[in-house]
Structure prediction request, 621 residues.
Amino acid sequence: MSATGYPLGAAGAAPGSPTTAGRALSVSTPLSIGVITAYLSVIVLIPLAAVVFRSSAGGWDVFWESVTSPQALAALRLSVIGSFVVAAINAVMGTTIAWVLVRDEFPGKDAVNALIDLPFALPTIVAGLTLIALYGSRSPLGINVAYTQFAVLLALLFVTLPFVVRAVQPVLGELDRDMEQAATALGASSWTTFRLIVLPNLLPAVLAGVGLGFARAIGEFGSVVLISGNIPFQTEVAAVRIFSQVENDNVTAAAAIAVVLLAISLTVLLIIALFERWSRKHDQ
Amino acid sequence: MPSHDRLLQSRFTRLQALFALAATAAAPALASSFPRPVLAQDQVTLTLVAYSTPREAYEAIIPLFQGAPDGAGVQFETSYAGSGEQSRAVEGGLPADVVAFSLEPDITRLVKAGLVAEDWNADEYKGMVTDSVVALAFRTGNPKGIASWDDLIKEGVEVITANPLTSGGARWNILAAWGAFLQTGKTEEEATEYLRQLFTHVPVQDKSAREALATFTGGKGDVLISYENEAIAAQQAGEELEYIVPDQTILIENPVAVDTESANPEKAQAFIDFLRTPDAQKVFGEKGYRSILPEVLETFDFPTPPTLFTIADLGGWSDVTTKLFDPDNGIVAKVQQ
Prediction:
């Protein structure tokens, strides 16, 4: 397969891939590459490198001890497993929401569509407070899940809702319905049509959204810190553990845990990118 | 902290500042770091970087200072946030003239960074500006019959305290419980066992004392381990809670210091001196703090617990920080495993 011009991530999900040489409209002049490199360095690469560098300040032993202490492991486990669960739920619910927003007509659709992005706009600490007010000890709805692992999932679901929906929506909107109609005409059940025609086309977008949501969830702090209760070994997430290391002036240990989170996110995003590349090849 | 670590620290100051900014959500502190307005030559502006709780007291005291001879014409910029966050923000470069924190280690951090003089606590008040004690707050009418530390680990009692690893201030709470045992002849093992049981009664460990108070007033838990002044402030704010000072508790001491990079060190010191006058101390007293001046303290009706100990009685901050609050090997981390 020759270079297709797709960014490594997925449809519409990886803005600013600097090596993509568009054929029709090339922007890869030395100047633009310089600007992009400088920009990415200042905004992303240098800060990330600083975190990695800081994590190594105490040597390998300190790094290893910081990330394998029982409390750190428990916090990492909760963040990683929680983020996978949230990613799975997002994959199903996000795709469903996108489907309804693209394919169905109902009154108030535009309002619902606008609502999807609001979790991004709300300060995460406000999200946490709101969730506590609604689902805590004085819940007007009679639902009290605050200070449990379930509450952690709830907060993560709230802040990651838009990723899959917004990744899938445009792809679904562009999808050629002729294929579906043909499949139906040939006697395929609607489930078969979805499974064999729609899903393969949507999958890259779903995975891109899932990957972003996962990366966001694994490091989430603001929305989780209030509603989780921060009980070590039960509801303490990795970001809160990092915060307590910072609060104890163990910046090296804090950076070490952050590096583990970065590594896990990077691995997940890479696997998604590889899977996509594989499935594209597989199609041909 | 071992000495090689300190070396590293100075080498990484700039990185650390970056990291601290990224990691501690120092937004409220940063808000006050905007360039100061250009002022007439004889005008002095002092920046007060303080922890959150005494905000109302400072807002009342600053006009008093401005009305006093030393404070005439002095303008103020104030920044309030968590004590640890404020301390790290100043360490990372937030300009300050006067710093006021909830506990001494937050000043010590700045002494190490060369931003507070080594002899900051050499005055007759040992660098402190207010006192308080650790109290036990409960719901109106005391439905669970809370009267002592032992009552916190009775079956069915839920205790709220901020997380002592994320909240410097919450360390006073744990030290009060820990010291209550040591100061009455119990062994360290017994005190540790008490902490182990206590934490099984804690369903929420908010990251700051303010959040813990909000959790409690929001309906969660039976007892809130709190500073006396916080409990009084909450009552003044109309929250429905009562509190007792247990028979054994710790004297909380809140430090204040001049930043060595202050452009107006004399005025900054004059402000600190003013904070220790009876006029200012009376305001602190009205906001629930115990005065550091005996003659002001006795005009208020604060109960005196039979066993009142200080951080020095427990070995000093440096010792207890390592022993109890090390995030990996401290007693608080161990008893929760």
Summary: The radius of gyration of chain B is 20 Å. Chain B has two domains: 3-130+253-302, 132-251+308-335. Chain B has 15 helices and nine strands.
